[in-house]
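Limitations
The structure tokens in this dataset are predictions for the assembled complex, not deposited experimental models. Users should treat interface geometry with appropriate caution, especially where small molecules or nucleic acid strands are included. An illustrative entry is reproduced here so readers can see what is and is not provided.
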Amino acid sequence: MHRRSGRLFGENRLGAPDPHLFLYDLREMGISRSVRLSRIVKTPDNFVKCALFICSSLTVFFVFLVIVFILSSSVPALKELGFKNVFFSTKWSPNVSAPLKGNYGILAFLNGTILTTIGALILGAPLGVGTAVFIDEYAPVWLKGLVFRGVEIIAGIPSVVIGWFGLTLLVPMIAEITNTSGYGMFAASLVLALMVVPTITTLSFEALQAVPEDIHDASVALGATRWQTVSRVLLPASLRGIAAAVILGMCRAIGETMAVQMVIGNARQLTFNPLTRTSTLTTRIVTDMGESHGVFRSALFAQGLVLLIFSAVLIIIVRAALKGRALSQ
Amino acid sequence: MNPKRADRIATVVFWSLSMTTLAALLVIIVRILSKGLLKALNPFFVFGKPEALKAGGGVLPMVVSTLYITVLTVVIAFPIALATAIYLAEYTRRESRLTRVIRLCIDTLASLPSIVFGLFGMSLFVIFLGWGYSLVAGAATLAVLSLPVIARSAEESIRSVPDTYREASYSLGASKWTTIRQVVLPSAFPGVITGTILAIGRIIGESAAVIYTAGLFVRKIPLNPLRTGAPLSAYIWYAQAEARIPDFRSVVDGGAALLLIIVLLVNFVARKLASYYREKKIAG
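Predicted assembly:
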């Protein structure tokens, strides 16, 4: 007999749904009071399933909308200025009154984004992975919760607050030590390092926790020191998870806007010196959006498009690293 | 190197790495609070009107905007997120190609930079739909941003409800939907609420997604959701970057401390609630 899962009653002898029989069976069992029957009959399972499915496919629709609107808004810049003049030019001199007369090359900001992200990972990845290993292996019991909670608190601090902290404390400190303005990619990387630590720590910790206890115990039983266990057993076994954690941290660093905008100095120049003012893609968008229109605005959207492509590519890499397993953050 | 010595060095390294993380957190909190706590607790600042040119302005309209936009965001995002979570956790035991696409989209949405949401919200809600810089436009943008966050945590808590609960319900003759409504959701409820409150913390702190959708500065308390608002986080950025008030340093100090306190409080409530329910579950 054909039977739908989860529905033990409510079918007549031929296997067709019969709401009356359903009611009758439930009443027989004496549970009519705990289950509001009229509601059940009015909302059959298939209808509910359909409605829930529509709601969940809204997510797909939203991703579609984001792509369509960012893409369509950046088309004018790519069309009227040319692909080459946008992506392979370092000259950014917008013309507010006559947008078409300006230059809109984003290469300098692309450079800023890539270098600050690398800087953030050089500083932040060891901190994040190290903290995760510490919580998993080294911390005394009373300290485990404290460190983990601390990392969660860092994750919750709004980016404008971290930015203000960087602007009022880190930038003057850097200025004093190096005898420069203090603004630049180094300050941005410092601030970003702080912001990627929570992502990297929580996800690396999860990866370390997923390593079977037996392997760990076997290593210790063979007389391995703690460091030998960590470096030859735990880290290799959780390598994919940790790589995914670092890539997601990278995602965060690439997309962070306000905190970086406050400390990077917002100059329009291409530079490889971490102590001179420059911009990233995100900070240029925020700085210029207010006064932009026409092709100028469209060029800002093109930078948004680059960010969108970056994070889509990174998320696909992460999912591949985790073998298609969905992320849980 | 001698393994014992290597081990000792590694121990020192891991201790110092994690203590650096903790120290950084401590320095930030102490710095922000020591600079702005007095201002943030000053009623003339919290309940005062902002000034455009003079010193001594407050942030009441910004606090109200933040609350307003948060409520609107949750009202829009929560039902969709919950429905998505129920569908993914209860109706797709076997992963079909379709649910894989939905998951990929949730992951993509969750990892997009907030400035991209800001651009998207601006071109769709502010310009294309003609809502202008308004609280609704900001809330709609934030709803799309927080949807995957709420949906993920809700799905996780729904999945953590033991299957025996469901089987008991089915054996009493309840249908699938009745089981979800009367059995699964009530026991997943604490987790769902905790996840939502954590998302609220993120919504309150979000600035890049709202400055060009909801607005940066207002004089009066925004009552109409179709009017421009100025969430506190956006105003903090505006005050330090562009405002022409002479006392912007102290306003930003106070605003940053106030925002930090609100966000820490929200996160604290979420954790407390989670541990309260966990203990209740173990006890009861």
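Some entries come with short summary sentences. For this one: Chain A has two domains: 1-42, 101-321.
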